[in-house]
Design brief:
- The complex is a heterodimer.
- By secondary structure, chain A is mainly β.
- Helices cover 0% and strands 54% of the residues of chain A.
- Chain A contains no helices and eleven strands.
- Chain A is globular, with a radius of gyration of 13 Å.
- Chain B is mainly beta.
- Helices cover 0% and strands 54% of the residues of chain B.
- Chain B is built from no helices and eleven strands.
- In chain B, strands 2, 4, 5, 6, 9, 10 and 11 form a seven-stranded mixed β-sheet that branches. Chain B has a four-stranded antiparallel β-sheet with strand order 1-3-8-7, with no helix packed on it.
- In chain B, β9 and β10 form a beta hairpin.
- The chains are: A mainly beta, B mainly beta.
Chain lengths: 113, 114
């Protein structure tokens, strides 16, 4: 089955700086890679996703890059703000997302004022 | 703004008792997932259904867990008998596959088994 590794487990950055979270996956058949943000006591919410036929995707301050050869993908947040503080999860799945997600262990992002 | 709903939001029970959690997927979604979240294991897939048919329940302890979809608007996850190690947050998610792949999560059921 799929295995997703996520690093770092905790990331502290100054407000306004950039944050990068990295994930690797094991199953070369995986082709859908979403990122979820989870605030304390809340549900995971999708913030961005990418499919294997695309190398990069951007949405305002958030971007995701995918390297299929190396089987890794990364989340980039620029101009971080206090409301970006949360736990971020990467995930992977096959069949374009039609199957269940395999999640990384999460990254606790702390934005220092 | 359509959302996945789950009941109950919180449940405290004693070991050995039966627990039933319910999920109402977003109207029109054809796929329902059950995930469990713990500090130690993170988010794990338990089971999922498409068009009410079970597709995969390999993540579920078969001897005590069961998942069903009695109709398109209701999914249930049952634990019988419950054990302290089942304490976790159980999330339901739904999606419309064939027209997009996003999985939308419900608010979760926080279960504590004493």
């Amino acid at each position: 089955g799929e295995n997703v590794e996520q690093h770092p487990s905790t990331l502290s950055v100054q407000e306004g700086d950039s944050a990068v979270i990295k994930c690797t996956y094991s199953d070369s058949a995986s082709n859908y890679f979403p990122w979820y943000k989870q605030e304390l006591g809340k549900r995971p919410q999708l913030i961005i996703d990418i499919r294997s036929n695309v190398g990069e995707k951007k949405d305002q301050r958030i971007a995701v890059t995918l390297n299929k050869t190396a089987k890794h993908f990364s989340l980039h947040i620029t101009e971080t703000q206090p409301e970006d503080s949360a736990v971020y999860f990467c995930a992977a799945t096959g069949r374009g997302g039609a199957d269940g997600l395999t999640f990384g262990k999460g990254t606790h992002l702390i934005i220092q004022p | 703004d359509a959302r996945v709903t789950q009941t109950p939001r919180h449940k405290v029970t004693e070991m050995g008792q039966e627990v039933t959690m319910r999920c109402q997927p977003i109207l029109g979604h054809n796929t329902v997932f059950w995930y469990r979240q713990t500090m130690m294991q993170g988010l794990e897939l338990l089971a999922y259904f498409r068009n009410r048919a079970p597709l995969d329940d390999s993540g579920m302890p078969k001897d005590r867990f069961s998942a069903e979809m009695p109709d398109a608007t209701l999914a249930t996850l049952k634990i019988q008998p419950s054990e302290p190690r089942d304490s976790a947050v159980y999330f339901c998610a739904s999606g419309l596959f064939g027209a997009g792949e996003t999985q939308y999560f419900g608010p979760g059921t926080r279960l504590l088994v004493l």
